[in-house]
Amino acid sequence: MDTAGYHLHPQLAADSHPLATLALSELRLIDDANYPWLVLVPRVADAVELIDLGRDQRVQLTDEIDFAARLLRAAVRPDKLNVAALGNMVPQLHVHVIARFQDDPAWPAPVWGRLAARPYAPESLVERIRSFQRAMADLAGGA
């Protein structure tokens, strides 16, 4: 895939940690221990909206959203999965996939603006990333 001109928005880089490089997107873990929260960032220069992607890219992104949702389900067994592409604060196209629990701090409301992000402690971050890596290996083995 040609990624010429693609750069990860500085805010997304600051707010997340890399998990995997997928066919179209970077898969990243949002640095907020309040919620298991992934974000997909298509490596397409100047993409702001879904309509900025070609048809094949939109199909690929849908497949990657499915993968991220299944990854969260396998790794943390949430009560609900939230999927959103807002981009009001960061214009670069990115899709949030958030694991929600009935006892999480924002339930049942959206996570945005409920409470400040709580960055992972270093050891918790390592364990969270390892749990996702194990779940990715399990999903790949079952594909």
Could you please describe the fold and organization of this structure?
InterPro entries: HIT-like, HIT-like_sf, HIT_Hint. One of its GO terms (molecular function) is catalytic activity. Helix content is 34%, strand content 20%. It is built from three helices and five strands, in the order H-E-E-E-H-E-E-H. It has a five-stranded antiparallel sheet with strand order 1-2-3-5-4. The longest helix has 22 residues, at 55-76. The mean pLDDT is 95.
List its salient traits.
143 residues; alpha+beta; HIT family, subunit A; five-stranded antiparallel sheet; 5 strands; globular; HIT-like; HIT_Hint; catalytic activity
Concise account of the structure shown:
The chain has 143 residues and is of the alpha+beta class. The chain has helices spanning 10-15, 55-76, 122-141, and strands spanning 16-21, 25-30, 37-42, 80-84, 95-100.
Which architecture does the CATH hierarchy give at level 2? Answer: 2-Layer Sandwich
The structure class reads: alpha+beta
CATH class: Alpha Beta
For the biggest β-sheet, the strand order reads 1-2-3-5-4
- Please give the number of β-strands: 5
At the fold tier of CATH, the topology name is: HIT family, subunit A
SS strand fraction? 15-25%
Radius of gyration: 15 Å
Number of helices: 3
Mass-distribution shape = globular
Structurally, the number of domains stands at 1
Q: Between the first and last Cα atoms, what is the distance in angstroms?
A: 22 Å
What share of residues is helical?
25-40%
Low-confidence stretches: none
H/E element sequence: HEEEHEEH
Q: Can you summarize the main beta sheet?
A: 5 strands, antiparallel
Mean pLDDT score:
95
**CATH superfamily label:** HIT-like
